Amino acid sequence: MDSDLMPSRPIVGSSLFERTIEAVAPAWALRRSYARMGLEHARGYDAAKMGRRTAGWQANGGTANAQLSQGLARIRNRSRDIIENNEYAKRAVAVFASNVVGYGITITPDDEIERAAWKAWSESQQCDASGDDCLGGLLRLGARERFSAGEILFRRRWRRLTDGLAVPMQIQLLEPDYLDENRTGPVGNGGNICILGKEYDALGECVAYWLFPEHPGEIAQSRLRSFESQRVPAKDVIHYFAKDRPSAVRGVSELAVSLMRYRDTADWNDAEQVRKKMEACVMAIISSSGPDKQLGLAGEKGVEKMRPGMIARIGTSDAVTFNNPMPSSGGGEFMRHQLHALAVGAGITYAQLTGDMSQANFSSNRMGLIEFRQMVEQEQWLNLVPKVLQPIRTWWREAALLGGVKLGEVTKDKYAMPRKYQVDPLKDTMTYKEAIRAGARTLSDVLREDGTDLETFIAERKHELAALKEAGIVTDTDAAVSELGLSGADVLSHPADNT
Questions:
Q1: Phi/psi at 372 (nearest 5 deg)?
Q2: Rounded to an integer, what distance in angstroms lies between the CA atom of residue 179 and that of residue 176?
Q3: CB-based burial, 47-81: b 16+ in 10 Å, e otherwise
Q4: Distance between CA atoms of 152 and 192, rounded to whole angstroms?
Q5: I want to staple 199 with a disulfide (CB 3.0 to 4.6 A). Which of 170, 208, 236, 345 is the partner?
Q6: Which of 111, 103, 110, 106 is nearest to 122 (CA)?
Q7: Is the dihedral of CA 441, 447, 451, 455 positive or negative?
Q8: Rg of the chain on CA atoms, in Å
Q9: Contact assessment for residue 105 and residue 416, using Cβ atoms and an 8 Å cutoff
Q10: Could you read off the pLDDT of 361-380 as tens digits, one per residue?
């Protein structure tokens, strides 16, 4: 034993057992002492204490994948059910997709030939394996599924050169149901391992996806295909999801945290409507001792029917008691509280979820939009661009070269997100103008916020000014008129190349 580890005096408060350990194995006693001090420190946090308040608090210490494996498909299916049957959930999905993708994201390559070829491919249905959508439509569907189901797959589909496509490649959107989550465990003899349908090598890199040939819930299955998941190389699949924990390999619905509240709120609303209908139906109660008297309107097979505001006359000697329903108080405030919670869970504002602007003024609405737009930009620049758009651009360049498109060197693309509509256009425009003049912002930066790019703006502006001048029209938006003070005749007399 090392004499340096021997404590100089017995540990305070130690039992006979611990003093015996200290005499026989001082190093072990010292480690136990350190562990005990750490435990006492941890118990100093209220959340770490064990007692009456935390008696029913069962926390799972497993990885994100261990938790997802128990209910990933169930959460996904329940989220879809809520979206299909709840107005607010459907609205939350629409708000997310319309702000993240909107009418599309503009990608502008530097090379002019590549720019024209990319625009022709991305703005046509040739990019979609189903032939229904352009790239913007695919991204919108992907954003909706990413929000509602938690994830979406983009699969590259190669086409023959004889298929008549300028770029022999299309993109197929696959719902996460295609990913075989039961594929979990070692794969082959190479040391790879599968986690919820994704195959990883020894270095922890995803190398393949195990996909079903058809959707497991499709109403018509092909008899020619075996319904077993097949290995697809990772280079042909883009998995669009957001990581909430470093260990997560799959995505979960953004509505998962609020699913029970959506359901309970809908049940409460239905119960309240039924109560109101019953209050309206029971207008008066007629008491009679006659054996042949009945309440309401006789329906089929003696079933009594009632309608709102109905009073049935049964006899002249019967006693009548009018119903005086007492409205429940606080129902509106309770519903607003629930909707506020649903909006927070979805990451959007209360006004966006409900369309109710009565709870916000101009300033508070703008502050809420600023916070929301920061979250949207995080989704765009940390998830959508690096994980989806850049890989799609790589796929497209590879296919375009095979198709014979003359491309230059690989350069950095410019991305223009959907236009952010201004709450106060005049003030916002003046703010942009002063920022550009002061050198704090560039025109390109402002144009990207407006959903376009500098090259497109210059081409359209040049064409517009030339067309106006040729037609003999001068507007005060021309800087020569508004800033230099020139007359319309002076502007029109200038050579066209100086426009």
A1: -65, -40
A2: 5
A3: eeeeeeeeeeeeeeeeebbebbbeebeebbebbbe
A4: 24
A5: 208
A6: 106
A7: negative
A8: 34
A9: yes
A10: 777 877 888 889 999 999 99
**Amino acid identity, position 466:** A
Residues 49, 42: Cα–Cα separation, whole Å: 8
Strands 198-200 and 206-211: antiparallel
User: CA distances (Å), 230 to each of 116, 157, 213, 214, in order?
Assistant: 37, 15, 7, 11
In tens, the pLDDT along 55-73 reads 778 888 888 888 888 889 9
Q: What is the pLDDT of residue 11?
A: 45
Cα separation, 181 vs 151, whole angstroms: 13
| Pairwise CA distance, residues 227 & 213, whole Å | 7
| Long-range contacts of 137-143, Cβ-Cβ distance < 8 Å, separation of 24 or more | 137/104, 138/171, 138/173, 139/101, 139/104, 139/105, 139/384, 139/388, 140/97, 140/101, 140/102, 140/104, 141/173, 142/101, 142/173, 142/240, 142/388, 143/96, 143/97, 143/100, 143/101, 143/384
Q: How many CB atoms lie within 10 A of CB 214?
A: 14
Q: In angstroms, rounded to a whole number, what is the distance separating the alpha carbons of residues 79 and 68? A: 15
Q: Are 149 and 80 in contact (CB under 8 A)?
A: yes
The amino acid occupying position 317 is S
Residue 358 sits at φ, ψ, to 5 deg, of -70, -20
Query: CA 490, CA 484: separation in Å to the nearest integer?
Result: 11
- Paired residues of 304 in beta bridges: 298
Q: Within 13 A of 378's CA, how many CA atoms are on the CB side? A: 10
Element (H, E) at 320: strand 319-322
Helices (H), 123-258: 135-148
* Sole residue written with tokens 């590259």: 156
Angle between helices 331-346 and 259-281 (to 10 degrees): 160
User: 455-486 b/e with 16+ CB inside 10 Å = b?
Assistant: eeeeeeeeeebeebbeeeebeeebebbeeeeb
For 191: left if phi > 0, alpha if psi spans -120 to 50, otherwise beta; the answer is left
Residue 455: left (phi > 0), alpha (psi -120 to 50), or beta? alpha
Contact by Cβ (8 Å): 86, 93: no
Residue 466, token pair as written in the block: 């030339």
Round to whole Å and give the CA distance between 26 and 373: 60
- The single residue listed with the structure tokens 């009594």 is 304
In Å, what is the CA distance from 284 to each residue of 273, 307, 327? Answer: 20, 12, 17
Mutual orientation of helices 87-100 and 331-346 as an angle, nearest 10°? 40
pLDDT tens figures, 423-464? 777 888 888 888 888 988 888 888 887 777 788 888 888 888
Assigned token pair, 485: 């003070």
pLDDT band of 50, cuts 50, 70, 90: confident
